[in-house]
Design goal:
Blueprint: H1 6-37
């Protein structure tokens, strides 16, 4: 019976990991370029809307006496 070639298997796993990482980076770059080309305002940052609660620090300096 033939012995397993662990070096080959390891190399294949490494190549698969490298390919997956490259695909993720490519997809991330694609999303970033799409986002830059078509910026969409966030719900909280919609023009003409007052800021929601909790977006500004409380008045009075902080510590309560």
């Amino acid at each position: 019976m033939a012995t397993p070639n662990y070096g080959y298997e390891k190399r294949q796993r490494e190549l698969a990991k490298k390919q997956k990482k490259e695909d993720k980076l490519r997809a991330k770059a694609q999303r970033k370029s799409d986002e830059a080309a078509h910026p969409e305002p966030l719900e909280d940052e919609a023009p003409g809307m007052p800021p929601g609660p909790g977006t500004q620090p409380p008045e009075g300096g902080g510590a309560a006496a």
